[in-house]
Amino acid sequence: MPPHLIASHLLRLDGARPALLGSRCCDCGEVYFPAARGCTRCCSTQIEPFDLGHHGRLWSWTVQDFCPKPPYDGVDNEADFRPYGVGYVELACGIKVESRLTLADPTRLRIGMAMELTLEAYRHDADGTAFHTYAFGPVHGEDAAA
């Protein structure tokens, strides 16, 4: 059974490997995530779906160590909150995507490290069903502590 996704319009699942979906302007080549309906660079409305892929480099990061205010709905109460990494990952096409990270340990994250897209449980409903979001984690062997 495929995983339950929080925002399925942002991802394509190719077997077990997710890829981010965006758009690209057919006239000037500007790339968008999430997908756009019009180009803010040249004002074109000739936009096509664009597969952003699943690899990049960590451009910047921080650790979210307190429970965010609504509309965040990842936990039911502050006692259940666990810190998580968040950062910008620069993809091969040049766009920087804000993303949750699979690590929240500052000693294991470094600017420029190779990252790959994965899915991570974001929350669980009352019957225990996990809902997933996209996240980036270090490519095997790229962990700064390894």
Largest sheet: 5 strands, mixed, barrel
* Spatial ordering of strands, largest sheet: 6-7-8-10-9
Beta-strand share of residues:
over 45%
Which class of secondary structure composition applies to the elements?
mainly beta
Radius of gyration: 16 Å
Tally of individual helices: 0
Number of strands: 10
Helix content: under 10%
Shape: globular
Description:
This protein is an all-beta fold and 146 residues long. It is globular and about 50 Å long. The protein has strands at 4-5, 11-14, 17-25, 31-32, 47-53, 55-64, 84-91, 96-101, 114-124, 130-138. It has one domain. The strands form two sheets. The protein has a five-stranded mixed barrel. Strands 2, 3, 4 and 5 form a four-stranded antiparallel sheet that branches.
List the helices and strands and how they pair.
Elements: E1 4-5, E2 11-14, E3 17-25, E4 31-32, E5 47-53, E6 55-64, E7 84-91, E8 96-101, E9 114-124, E10 130-138
Which descriptors apply to this entry?
146 residues; mainly beta; 5-stranded mixed barrel; 10 strands
